[in-house]
User: Fold these one by one.
Assistant:
Number 1:
Amino acid sequence: MTHTVSRAPVTARGKLPLKERYALLTRDLGWEPSYVGKERLFPYTTYEGIKIHDWDGWQDPFRLTVDAYFKYQAEKDRRLYAVLDSFAQGQGHLTLSDASYLNSIKLFIQGITPLEYAAHRHFAFLARYLDGPAPRFAALCQSVDELRHCQTQVHTISNYNKFYGGFHSWSKMHDRVWYLAVPKSMFDDAMTAGPFEFLVSISFSFEYLLTNLLFVPFMSGASFNGDLPTMSFGFSAQSDESRHMTLGLEAIKFLLEQDEGNVPLIQAWIDKWFWRAYRVSALVAGMMDYMLPKPVMSWREAFELYFEDQMLGGLFPDLSFYGIDPPRHVEAAIAEKDTVSHEVYKILHNFSFAAAFTTQTPSAGHLAWLSGQYPRTFDRYYRPVWDKHRRIEAAGGRVFFHGLPQLCQVCQLPLAFTEPGDPATLSLRRSEFRGETFHTCSDGCQWVFEREPEKYVQARLAVHQILQGNCGGPAMADVLDWYGIQPGDNGEYKDSPDALSWARWHEGSPA
Amino acid sequence: MSVKARYDYDFPSADRIENFGADQLVYVLWEGNPLFCSAAAFRVPRAMPFGEFVTAMVHPWAASDPDFDPGAIGGWRLFDEPLIAEPTMTMEGAGIGHKALLRFTAR
């Protein structure tokens, strides 16, 4: 192999300045291939149609080196693991706001932690296959970050597995269970796209546009509900996340500056991936408004602050300089801010008999909070339904959906969303492709489907897989067993093993 | 627009009718009942009489709502059009195809 590296002279003892070390680590570790062509070395960076004229135009705003990187991360790990030890030794789980709080953390480890691992894998791929040395090194750092996030989350949350249901088989569940197909299929969609689409999907749309809506609610929820360990891994990941956000923005600006022909490709990916990531965030919306015994802020308020003000008000005016418009269907997302969390929690409440968490009808106090947060919709559309649930439960019943739902071909959530501006009418979209009917939940998902129907016809919809006999057997008990869900992980919270243990552990405690 | 790929991108649909033998998928929506988050999905023999489908499959599901009254079911529609189906007609005979959406009211 022929190196064309011109090495800076290294003195026997002294270290090089950071800037030079970074240059050596990135730019100077690149070389011109001599015995294979560039297109064989980097086979994935041309077919999407993106044109890169100068890979050295990539500016890494952080200029991390390996030694500095490991030093920072080791320090953060030391602090996190000290918190984990002291929480475990002091039986900290008994000081949570309520055992039902942990349903949000079950959703987190089942739904989000495996995405960290998936991101680790794909950034490792990019660390090999991007042409430029600087973006390769940035991808490598992010790959290591994502693996660390996965590990610290598993270590943090494993303490709860000793005392509560639903924490035991999250990896298997992520691959198999219906509601986890929502985040999983989004990441699978991104990982099976080209490298540039992946950067726009995960680095930009997921980590930049929506990260404050996807990640922060769990951490603030932890803080409000006495979950010090989860809050600590949140802090521990925060500096990495802000680096990832900056890289996401840097990546998109780099692509936009390289060639004018890239602009329409990037715009189409922003249009697609905003909607894909936004639909995953709907699960977080339901969690925020209904699963936290001490709610932090409503989904509507978070959406207005983190998305409407920060992104539509702050980011997109800057991007318009490059010819980039706000995402297609953003108006539909805004119109849904008073409805989406209620519709999603309705799904979870209907189907928690098949979930690895429990749900419950909101208490009178919680209903009053929701009513105050959603003056435009709650009392008119949702309170009457919860009142009916409360009547049925007062008589000893509990409504579950005795069957399986119709799923969206793209986001894989049930078709449970309503028409923008009309919370009483379900939004049902239908497309034909090669003589077969495909159903989607919204204009956004229908647009994504019709743009690449060949991709989405392959979707492994959980309900249809059960009905094809591919999920352990025909009876719900067979399916739950195949999902890895154990009796008591699922169903209603109020008479769940978690609720009963919690009451027993707190017997005789001062109120 | 089609998928950009480095090879011929052509894969079969995961839910094509051949994967369901003599059966097919049918969705049923109880219109105006917000106790249910969405329509229900059923695997139904194409030769099953429509009336039997309603009593054997739709009724037990609809009874998830304790206020459900089987006698009140009516106003059937196939997608957005009124459904003209005698109870003895088969699903196929009534024009209810794979992945069709049926709607009813019961109030």
Number 2:
Amino acid sequence: MSWIVRYLWLIPVLPIVAAGISALLQRERRRLSATLAIGSMGVSLVLALMAFAEALSEPARQVVNFPWMQFGTEWVRLGWLLDPLAAVMLVMVSFVGLLIFIYSLGYMAHDDNFTRFFCFLSLFAGAMLGVVIANSLLLLFMCWEVVGLTSYLLIGFWFQRPAAAAAAKKAFITTRVGDLGLLLGMVWLYGQTGTLLFYDHGAGCLEQSALAGMAHAAAAGMAVSTAIGLLIFCGAVGKSGQVPLHVWLPDAMEGPTPVSALIHAATMVAAGVYLVARVYPLMSAQALEVVAWVGAITAFFAACIAVAQNDIKRILAYSTVSQLGYMMLGLGVGGVAVGMFHLITHAFFKALLFLGAGSVIHGCTEEQDIRNMGGLRRYMPVTFATYAAGMLALCGFPLFAGFWSKDAILHAAHGWGLSRGPFYLGAVGALLTAFYMTRQVCYVFFGERRVTEATVAPASVAQHVPHGEELEPIVSARPGEVCAVEDPHESPAVMTGPLVILAVFAVLLGFVGTPAWPWFQSFLAGQSAHLDWAGFGEPGLLSLMVTSSLIVFAGLGLGWWLYGRKPIEHATDLDALERMQPGIFHALANRLYVDEFYNATVIALARFAAAFSAWLDRWIWGGAVWLVSAVVTGLGWLDAGVDRVVVNGGFDAGCRDLARGGRLFSRLQSGRVQNYLRVIGGALVVLAVLLLWGRRG
Amino acid sequence: MNPLAGCLLVSALLFSVGLAGALTRRSAILVLAGIELMLNAANLNFIAFWRYGTHIHSAADPMTGLIFVIFSIAVAAAEAAVGLALILAIYRHARTSDVSEMTELQG
């Protein structure tokens, strides 16, 4: 075993240590905090690349397990592992993470809580890397929860905004619902196999002996492993924003944009997909069927909603939900390699899109509504070019990264034996993806710059503004016309640099997994890849590629025809779709009322339960407690009365009598010596008389 | 009347005179003198019983009563010295030797 496997734990621990040190720094130590975060992330990236090289030369899985603590007679063991799956994720997370850290330097440059931001980012990155290398469901769960915590902290980073605070809480609570399933699955798995280690030289819970022990039926015709797999999938549904727990992800866009890029596009939401890929041996055909359907429905559903959103980040958020659905679909119908390939390519181009959106927002002085932008390609050429690359990759434009990975998923779905439904949902989703991305790009970058009353709505001024120094002089001069006077500007190099790097990957990354040279898929399977043009000759593959390209072109064309041909001129103009189908558009713009539905059902129920519990607490339990306390108080009062009247009175009377007796007797003690002598003499006489008397008697 | 009865009668008289003196005199010195008289009445009793007592003198210690009286007189002398010293001390403190005025120790 090489040293890199033995010291693999350094990769997650370094950023966590950096976060710990950052947490203790003063707020003014901005440079040190950023240096720590970026430095630790850079070292982690180097180590991850070494681990990747190790996995390349030695594709077999290598694990290191160690006993952690004892309870009862059992030792809880944790461990880490290195296999191609983990190696790919390690490189992706640390590389994208590093780029986003660097980008944050520019984006957060003017924020007061810069130090805290980098502390949270490092903690997040460390925990995420921990999820990736964990060889124990327990260790994975711990890191998973730290990831959830940092997600909460980062979404609520600008907690002064009520919306951000609410979004943070929503994200935390919604993912907890899924994590409950994961926890139950974990407990059940432990009960069944007695270990939570994934691989333990034949004794792990994902290995043959354990899986064979879980093949018997549990309930409703499901095998135990299916039930456990579905429970674990619940955790993935929460974390990866699948229907029906997707509601938190769009709201999470209240966080700073680098956070959205890092957590809610590239890494954290991918953790759910990674989890399913990791426990893939546990997933029976039935469980995978559920995974595929959930993924397909999410892919379609979120793409529909994205069509009618106006917030630049919210569109991307729904797009993320949709793409995560594709990944789940890929896992469900095609296997680990298909889903993971899309995860990796998506991480790059979605991080690119988010960072590009951040650059747009940064350049437009915190404007997020695409109706108030327009014509930005002239002001921000680099951002425009990179954003376009990311957008084409996301749409699945031929030869871009997204094309290859999405095509693999569609191909697998097409060949799925159980149903064609997921394939059609995925294909329509692809059309919608191309359409809404075209719509967004047309709104943001094409046409003329739209400056209207809506631009200068007081809300956008009153919002928390992280870069005050650009804004303040203008605000003080003419408070109503922020965007009107200041032209959008290109972002600094520290922000465009990562964009360019990510754009290169968004264009080229797909070539590591083409049908002719399936290096990525072979690598995950532990085989060596070779170039073979016959890969395209697989039946149905080429026609499917052509079809999906046509779908993409149709989406792009439709989007251009509706939005690019004649861009809207005023921010208050109606959307093209809104003019045609106002009912559908409004339903979509309101996110198909899912939030309202949850408000009316789950949350109302929870509120009622809370109110009922409060009532119970206040009147029933509170009443019982009050009664007991009243009885005790009464008894105490009675006791005090008895004490005062009987005991105190009795003692007082006794003491008074004693004192009186003392006074009486003290009179005998007159101090006159002769009196004493007189008494003695008298007593002597009496004694003598008595003696004499007695003698005579 | 035998000699013993005569002695005891004298001794009783002496004791009564001492007691009366101790009880009635105001001066502390005279009270002390009364007490000395009572003590000497007791000594006289010792001698009388030694000389005329009914019991047989043992040959081993023919002098018991005599020695007793000598001791008693010595103790009385010491007692008188202490008593006079006390009276002097009290006089210095209270500027009086009138026992009826010395009532500070009353309860």
